[in-house]
């Protein structure tokens, strides 16, 4: 009797857990599915009630966007800005983070805190000073300016993250490598770095997301030639109306690269984000 | 293979002196052990040889070359760390080959050396495994393997056995000693365990608070400790110490105290040498194995009547803790327990194997 009682309680728990998971999944996925499906519909089909789940998909919106709408160019701008800034942040952040974790500096902790505190600046507060600096150096309307702006936020973040990952690593392995014949740089590059790969990947993804999703910097610092996708998307909402089809297609284009990158590195991502949680 | 010479080597962090004027000449092929309690500076000394700690003052030579400012990679040394420090992302083969690859050995030479070392340490079957798939003892072997493939001038070992369980530790101790007989590489070995030091070292350096207390062979450390610290550190259980002073009865010299302790100095030479200490506080030392109840050592009037406090039966031998007034003495007896707690028994102290120290300086007077 006791056995059935326990197992029926277990059953209820299982059902509840799966119901909750189901709701969460619908909550997370439905808007995305809705967006992707809508982008493949004609404008007439898009608002029909009840919504149509079976229809003949059309790529006409995408075709229009990439031919007439110059979305290929916007996509390229977004990619260049996001990936360059991420690459710079990761390279410099990894070197700087390693130096702060291993070097024996006076007030090293204060230096590290000062660095991360710059990441805490609200984007809005950074825009005006950056605008003045960029105007002086003729960087307004250049992709380089945008990369620079993203890097001012990504670099301190990457440096701080990499510093904590390296600090958790016992230094003995690098010492062993140096005694084995490695230079300090070889000990860093061949011994320490491979061990923080998950952290590096997670940091990279977070930097990429910041730059990719940015609207504020891009809307202020870009001109039509180097506009990024989020800015282009915002222009679809005009006083005369909303280009729903293009908005849906743009949304799909925006999330696809992040989705693919996320899936490609998800093995590292989970380990990276939970690094240090369990020794 | 090479000699290692410390010439007034000093290490300090800011104002804190960690190693004070370390002088030592290690002979080629010698197995030298640095031993002392934690924080005595022995690991720091080793890491200075490795080049992992900067040398604050003095000179350090490996062979004839002064290495103070030489980076670790150029010193041609190999080190075994307490936590093994294997490279977790490489398998055993790659771990052992790493140093050879950096030194640009040919692939065939690397393969030959790694396999030879693996054979010596019986880890051939583990070459494809990652460190996390190995037991503690296996990791230890890999760490030693990584050191010996390089055929370095000097081996440095920093408490290599202290993470192993007791049984494995004894086994690896013997294997390391055998390995040294075979390779004959100059070795500096750091441990806090006096048994390891006594069993492995050609010579032992006893350190305390950054100061070398004595450098000597195991026999000499045991028989002729330079001071009370060395006397108490070497040997297990530790030497018994009894505070006392000299007293002359007729033409015989005794060491006595208020707790009923009394010991007759048989040798007139010793008594003569102690003449300047007549008024001074002394410490008498005797090892547990030099306390006996067979009483044949001394005349009947020199027996001590001691109370049995604790009896520890170790199987082959028994440790008995006696009290003599407020003094406590531990004796080591062959065989099983023979007394009950609370009994008062007669014991004798070996008249030819005792130690005597100046209480003030703690230096040996014999």
UniProtKB/TrEMBL annotation, chain A:
Establish whether keyword Transmembrane is in the entry.
Answer: yes
Pfam families per UniProt: BPD_transp_1
Compartments in which it is found: Cell membrane
Give the transmembrane region(s).
12-37, 79-100, 112-134, 146-167, 188-212, 243-265
Kindly list the GO CC terms recorded for this protein. Answer: plasma membrane
The record's section on SUPFAM superfamilies has: MetI-like
What keywords sit in the KW lines? Cell membrane, Membrane, Sugar transport, Transmembrane, Transmembrane helix, Transport
How does the record classify its membrane topology?
Answer: Multi-pass membrane protein
Q: Which residues form the ABC transmembrane type-1 domain?
A: 75-265
Q: What's a GO biological-process term for it?
A: transmembrane transport
The family database entries (InterPro entries) matched by this protein are listed as: BP-dep_ABC_trans_perm, MetI-like, MetI-like_sf
Question: What family does the Swiss-Prot or TrEMBL record give for this protein?
Answer: Belongs to the binding-protein-dependent transport system permease family.
- Write down the PANTHER family for this protein, in alphabetical order: INNER MEMBRANE ABC TRANSPORTER PERMEASE PROTEIN YCJP, MALTOSE TRANSPORT SYSTEM PERMEASE-RELATED
- Record protein name field: Multiple sugar transport system permease protein
TrEMBL record, chain B:
**Its Gene Ontology molecular function terms?**
ABC-type transporter activity; ATP binding; ATP hydrolysis activity
GO CC aspect terms? ATP-binding cassette (ABC) transporter complex, substrate-binding subunit-containing
Which one GO biological process term can you cite for this protein? carbohydrate transport
Q: Where is the ABC transporter domain?
A: 4-234
Could you tell me which SUPFAM superfamilies the record lists for this protein?
MOP-like, P-loop containing nucleoside triphosphate hydrolases
Iron as a keyword of this entry, yes or no, is no
The protein's UniProt keywords, in alphabetical order, are:
ATP-binding, Nucleotide-binding, Transport
The identity of this protein, by name, is Carbohydrate ABC transporter ATP-binding protein, CUT1 family (TC 3.A.1.1.-)
Q: Which organism is it from?
A: Desulforamulus putei DSM 12395
